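User: Teach me something about this protein's shape.
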Amino acid sequence: MYTLSSCSHCRAAKKLLNELGVRFEYVDVDLLTADERRTIMEEIRRLNPSVSFPTIIIGDTIIIGNREEKIREALGLR
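Assistant: First, the predicted structure itself:
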């Protein structure tokens, strides 16, 4: 998951995944060095051309934003 440390939607998505007991990795893009950020932003742009946050990757599914139903569906938790 690609997030911003100051983003309320990003914090809510992390909270949801924690509440669901899902192990996950995330990168707070705004806390990276300039070089790291440039590299990560290229990846995010490839996955999510609008470059909005959070950008969540679950398997082959890309979810843009904190969309609980889509997250649950991608995790098989409907």
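Now, about its shape. The two ends are 20 Å apart (CA to CA). The first strand starts at residue 2 and ends at 3. If you'd like, I can walk through any region in more detail.
User: That's plenty for now, thanks!
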